[in-house]
Design brief:
heterodimer; A: mainly beta; four-stranded antiparallel β-sheet; 0% helix; B: six-stranded mixed β-sheet
Amino acid sequence: DVKVTQSSRYLVKRTGEKVFLECVQDMDHENMFWYRQDPGLGLRLIYFSYDVKMKEKGDIPEGYSVSREKKERFSLILESASTNQTSMYLCASRGGFANTGELFFGEGSRLTVL
Amino acid sequence: AQSVTQPDIHITVSEGASLELRCNYSYGATPYLFWYVQSPGQGLQLLLKYFSGDTLVQGIKGFEAEFKRSQSSFNLRKPSVHWSDAAEYFCAVGPYGGATNKLIFGTGTLLAVQP
């Protein structure tokens, strides 16, 4: 079975803290994504990566950065967490260009910033 | 502007009843269309997808969807709902060619199933 694993399901952090959200996939996929999910807003793309050390901004990159040092791992970083970053964060991966586009999602990381 | 609209935020159906979840899209090019399901506490799982060909597509768990270009719709259907179908459903549209970085998600429809 394909698997995308988000190491932290629930996190509580304080305003101004640095937060790392980790995601690992075991499918040898080239593409990895970080989405933010909020009620009434659906999923919004924060960043994606199409190769190791390569990244592109999504629709809402402000306040976030990412790191992809290895193909299987994609990290989302909140340099200085703020209360408006309280949300559910979903990691996803996808195969190469020839792939039909299915995203495989992790179970999500629910972050609360106090 | 490219967009996906799921007009129903919340739907309640009785177990055994039929279901139709609506999805309308606005997209300038030939779209790829997807339906994903999110069970409580879980990530999203692909139900079905449409790229080309037969406009009625079959998916997992007994779901189907019909692409209607003239109506810019891709509605999800199931003839008989099971209690385990209670979840949130997301419609998504992307460009022909599968560049998933451009995938646009709807805001979701939360389905409740009454016994």
